[in-house]
Amino acid sequence: MATKKSKTSSKSEKAKSTKSKSTVKTTVKTEHEAPKTNTVVTNSKKSCLSGFFAKKYEAKESIFTVFKTPSFYGALIGEILGTMLLALLLFAVSLMGIASLATYSFAVIAVLIAVYAISGACLNPLVTVGMMASRRMSVIRGVMYIIAEVIGAWLGWLIFNGLHLAGGETAYDIPAMTAVGENQFWLFAAIEILGAIIIAFFYARALSYKRSVFTFAAVVTGGMVLAILVNYVASAAFLNLNNNFIMNPAVAMMLQIFPTAGENFGEILGGICQALSLYAILPMIGGVVGFYLSDFTSKLSGEE
Description:
Elements (H helix, E strand, L loop, with lengths): L1 H43 L25 H27 L4 H19 L5 H9 L5 H28 L18 H22 L6 H26 L10 H4 L12 H37 L3
């Protein structure tokens, strides 16, 4: 009988020790879980702009890794083909005028849908620079995209001019950009920057709908059409011109923006610097402003 009692007492002692251990574990868990609750509270008190400049692209992507992935080369080819098609559309619009804008819109939507899954369909250096500045894209990818976009615009010009030559005509010369008169530089610049901000803002907002490719393409195209209409009205009202804005630095290189003659070398160099700043540098700055404006409003509204 004594043996049975000792066994029973040993079992009860084991049960008590097990309960005490579980109590200790529960206490430990509670102590470890408490900081998590505090962390959530502190995160909610952080500024709405926290993480504004955080990386939004793959952290591992760098100059040492990006060239090792086949998808990167596919993206470059996509940018070349997409920009080529977009340049062809812009050259066609320059011939047919603003009346062809509706047809142009449908064609742009088709190009964006076709290229988006391959490269993201930037197709414009001002958009690519905005993607880099807002840290949606690595610098090395952005630089290669810009090179691909310039190549695509050049191929578009070769095809457009080649089709013209195939008809037995002389090489077609798209009308040169209107010369900037005295005290008109900032009027030209304001129109170009305004259009770039609109395009970049709409592109950044369209990224929120990237699960629906058609919605993405429709929003981006709507921004491009709005920028064209606003600049068309602004240039006609303030400059009495209709052909002085491009809003695509890659295509601008094909539209005779650089002077080829002048009284001296200094005048030619000054004209080249003016054209580069007006149709390349300032639109890229507008692209950065458009992306930051989108991110800023998204943060203030609490949008994830």
